Amino acid sequence: MSKLLLGIDIGTSGCKVACFDLNGKVIAQSTKSYPVYYPAPGYAEQDPYMWWDAVCAAIREAIQTGRVDVKSIAGIGVDGQSWSAIPVDKNGEVLHKTPIWMDSRSSDICTETVEKVGFEKIFAISGNSFEPTYSTPKILWFKKNKPDVYKNTFKFLQSNSYIVYRLTGIMSQDISQGYGLHCFNMKTGKWEDEFCEELGIAREKLPEIYSCHEVVGEVTDKASEETGLPKGIPVVAGGLDACCGTLGAGVVQKGQTQEQGGQAGGMSICLDEAIAHPKLILSFHVIPDLWLLQGGTVGGGGSIKWFKEQLGAFEESLAKQTGNANAFQIMDEEASSIAPGSDGVIFLPYMAGERSPIWDKHAKGVFFGLGYDKTRKHMIRSVLEGCAYALQHNLQTAEEVGVEVQELISMGGAANSLIWTQIKADVTGKRIKVPTSDTATTLGAAILAGVGIGEYKSFDEAAKRTVSITRTHEPDMQNNELYKKYYEIYLELYDKLKDTMAKADRIKKM
């Protein structure tokens, strides 16, 4: 009986479950969605109970539709979105919805903490800036604004560790998600007990740290009943979705770089030492003794999804009429009919504020350059280009600390778009390779399980067996020269509008 590995991905818009053979072939998969709640300005929450319900439904559907022999599933890996702060009591009951990575409610707490502790000390230990999107200020928000929740919290969990808990009954903290907490030492991979107290977080509320491929426990009787999986399957700690996606794209050695295009966008540069930049994000890789210098933007698949939902009625209707394409494919065709640079239409993809490298919760999405001669096709292409400019901004920032990228390995749903991938190659001036499957994130989680249970001798072996490149995009350097000019305007637009953006938020709060 051939052995299978199960990967579970807790994304922002939904969870994905995929079952792979040891060569990385998808045997079965399923996706289930869940909502994001926006109860107040700056708030963005999700309900971990809904995550679990979606995981259970997706597993059952994948097993059924793929006719999977569940006895062949040898291990389970779980990845998840970043910067959760899930308060659970001793019985594992969730005490409050978790603020997610887009949440910025703790801005004032960040200002107070940095003034009290000092940016230099925080950055020296954690390798990251102290921003409201991270887990630390969210925990402090609970302490200040929901004292009963904080008091009754036994552990604060991350998205993947919550699912691991539901599967095994054991609370854990994987090393790759440690970067969300500023009392986590980015060089040693351990909690700094005294600094926890200095920041105002009780050390005992943080779980034990595990290596990402380390087996935490096994599927319990209760989890077996709820998921349809046999009890006793080993479950590893798992890791950050961007890190697992990086692994699933084949980035296992220093110098390799992943470019992601899921709901959000960004890049992850693989390093063999902890090189930090205050405007970027530094985390451990899911592979031991490697780090990832990351750029995370809100400008990704979410931007083009928003356009489709709000302005794409024509493409949606045409897709239904023809029956041979989806709306996104039609939008790609429309964007392809517009010249590079969108005839001067530029899009700032700051649809939920922006993360790296500007870290501005007030940042807004902007279309610049519209006129009577412009069409929706111009706007569609400008959205694709704007997200590529955001990628370039992060790559350029990494160069400031001597980290340069030669080529990118692309993953996520956006990698399925030929034109979008080519635009990114042209804007950055770098070759982009696209692996076989767009299930890189769940594959990465599954690989962690495979290494953890000994089915792969090393991460290098796992990558060679499971990852292959299907196409390569070489940059058009003539287009690159044009994009450089528009990129300068892209940067100028934000610089000139950032105070106005903040002013608009102040007016909205009146």
Q: Which structural category fits the helices and strands?
A: alpha/beta
Q: Report the end-to-end length measured between terminal Cα atoms.
A: 65 Å
Low-confidence stretches: none
Largest sheet, if any? 7 strands, mixed
Order of strands, main sheet, comes to 16-17-15-14-20-21-22
Strand content: 15-25%
Number of strands: 22
Mean pLDDT: 96
Coarse shape: globular
Give the helix proportion (percent range): 40-55%
Q: Helix count?
A: 17
Task: Report on the architecture of this protein.
- The chain is built from 17 helices and 22 strands.
- It has helices spanning 48-65, 107-117, 119-126, 135-145, 147-152, 159-168, 193-199, 221-227, 241-248, 301-311, 313-322, 327-336, 376-398, 418-428, 440-452, 459-466, 477-509, and strands at 4-10, 14-21, 26-33, 45-46, 73-80, 86-88, 98-99, 155-157, 173-174, 209-210, 215-218, 234-236, 239-240, 257-261, 265-271, 281-284, 291-297, 346-348, 366-368, 407-411, 431-435, 469-473.
- The strands form 7 sheets. Strands 16-17-15-14-20-21-22 form a 7-stranded mixed beta sheet. The protein has a 5-stranded mixed beta sheet with strand order 3-2-1-5-13, with helices on both faces.
- The protein is globular.
- The termini are far apart.
